[in-house]
């Protein structure tokens, strides 16, 4: 792999697998550029996680819509609605 | 129908089954504990995300665990009133106060990094698919090629952050 990709791999192991890299730890403290690369990569993992969640949320919304609209579920939906109507 | 669509559809069916199995019980629980139907719907969505993420890490986990998550989230919400929004508990979650920026940047990243990169990264880092499965799903000849592509995508996204000259405070925790 290219040097830059190896560097990404090393940062990943440091951030996600807690692989102790004395060299990287030292560079992080001493070198602003390395510090910045690590922080950006950390941020990217949180962005990817959020993107994953958004995909799942879309499926959940589709499922909710299907559940509330599909005719075969209507008896269940009616009893749920009655439950809340009784309250008010 | 491509592979992604099939997966999405499978995922949606999985969630429909959970709605059928657990939403009535959860709704009853919320109704008994001072909530309304919208509360039940919001809470169930949040719980499903947490349950799904738990299942990615522990595939053998029982579906009954979902009701436990709902109960805990609702207790937490009642305890934390008048705070309205339930915060999902995860270390990697983008912080609430950053979410507006994140949603904006996420969509920009996705557009610029490309759909394929986004799918590869989400499959590996979020869905926890193995490199073997990633290679198969995206048509790489080997796990090595999949690994290299994954890092190239990270590199591409990293370059985009720099290119757009995001404020340092935007990406630092």
**What pair of chains forms the biggest interface?**
A-B, 44 and 51 residues
Anisotropy-based shape of chain A: rod-shaped
H/E element order of chain B: HHHHHHHH
Structural class of chain A, by secondary structure, is mainly alpha
Please state the overall shape of chain B, judged from the principal axes of the Cα atoms. elongated
Distance between the termini of chain A: 65 Å
Major pleated sheet of chain B: none
Q: Quickly give the structural class of chain B.
A: mainly alpha
**pLDDT averaged residue by residue of chain B:** 81
3D structure, described in words:
The complex is a heterodimer of chains A (88) and B (173). The mean pLDDT of chain A is 86. In chain A, helix 1 crosses helix 3. Helices cover 85% and strands 0% of the residues of chain A. Chain A is rod-shaped, with a radius of gyration of 24 Å. The longest helix of chain A has 38 residues. Chain A is an all-alpha fold and 88 residues long. Chain A contains four helices and no strands. In chain B, 27% of the residues are buried. Chains A and B meet through helix 1, helix 3 and helix 4 of A and helix 1, helix 2, helix 4, helix 5 and helix 7 of B.
Write the layout of secondary structure elements.
The complex is a heterodimer of chains A (88) and B (173).
Chain A: H1 3-16, H2 22-30, H3 32-69, H4 74-87
Helix pairs in contact in A: 1-3, 2-3
Chain B: H1 3-32, H2 37-57, H3 65-80, H4 99-113, H5 115-126, H6 131-138, H7 143-163, H8 168-171
């Amino acid at each position: 792999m290219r040097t830059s990709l190896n560097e990404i791999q090393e940062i990943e192991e440091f951030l996600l697998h807690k692989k102790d890299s004395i060299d990287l730890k030292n560079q992080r403290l001493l070198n602003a550029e390395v510090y910045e690369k690590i922080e950006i990569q950390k941020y990217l993992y949180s962005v990817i996680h959020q993107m994953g969640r958004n995909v799942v949320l879309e499926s959940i919304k589709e499922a909710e819509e299907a559940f509330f609209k599909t005719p075969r579920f209507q008896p269940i939906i009616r009893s749920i609605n009655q439950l809340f109507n009784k309250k008010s | 129908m491509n592979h992604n669509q099939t997966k999405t559809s499978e995922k949606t069916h999985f969630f429909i089954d959970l709605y059928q199995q657990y939403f009535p019980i959860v709704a009853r629980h919320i109704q008994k504990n001072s909530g309304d139907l919208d509360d039940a719907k919001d809470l169930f969505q949040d719980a499903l995300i947490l349950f799904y993420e738990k299942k990615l890490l522990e595939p053998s986990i029982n579906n009954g665990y979902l009701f436990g998550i709902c109960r805990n989230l609702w207790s937490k919400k009642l305890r934390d009133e008048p705070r309205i929004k339930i915060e999902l508990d995860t270390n990697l979650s983008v912080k609430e106060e950053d979410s507006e920026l994140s949603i904006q940047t996420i969509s920009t990243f996705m557009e610029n990094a490309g759909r394929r990169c986004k799918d590869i990264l989400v499959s590996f880092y979020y869905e926890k698919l193995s490199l073997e499965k990633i290679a198969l799903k995206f048509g790489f000849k080997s796990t090595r090629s999949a690994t290299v592509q994954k890092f190239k995508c990270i590199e591409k996204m990293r370059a985009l952050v720099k290119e757009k000259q995001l404020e340092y405070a935007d990406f630092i925790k």
